Amino acid sequence: MTIATETKAWRFALVGTPNSGKTALFNALTGSRQKVANYPGVTVERKAGSFQTVSGHRVDLIDLPGTYSLRGRSPDEEITRDVVLGRLVNEVPPDLLLCVADATNLRVALRLVIELKRAGRPMLLILNMIDIARRRGIAARNQVFTSLIGQGYSGT
């Protein structure tokens, strides 16, 4: 007789600057099986979906609105900040932040990356568009990220 044990799904949130590729990654991971959910009191939307890891663990994934800083004041930036920092009532903070950064525009992304790291939340840095950056002569070096934020990156 096999006893099934229920395991809690992991909650991951995609966060990054606008047009960094968060939604493309979201669609690739979830197979575009997403639902749109409104946050109470504002018209800003976020996408939510899920996928299973190769080991069979379920991951609930949130695609947050793009922001340049956790200090932003627009409604979408406030939502992103509040989700990242676990400030929304009745919303469990993400277990892991997937910080998507555009490798062709690292100077813009780096501010947010450093703010997210300082927030003390578990984070994985994902550099997107590395192929385009290389064609433009831009090289991202893991050692640089390790010295700046204490960790390297994963690339797409």
UniProtKB/TrEMBL annotation:
Gene Ontology MF terms: ferrous iron transmembrane transporter activity; GTP binding
Stretches assigned to the FeoB-type G domain:
9-156
List the PROSITE patterns hit by this protein, alphabetically: G_FEOB
CDD domains noted in UniProt: FeoB
Q: Name one GO cellular component term.
A: plasma membrane
Query: Mind telling me which PANTHER family this protein's record contains?
Result: FE(2+) TRANSPORTER FEOB (PTHR43185:SF1), FERROUS IRON TRANSPORT PROTEIN B (PTHR43185)
Specify the protein name. Ferrous iron transporter B
Q: Which organism is it from?
A: Candidatus Afipia apatlaquensis
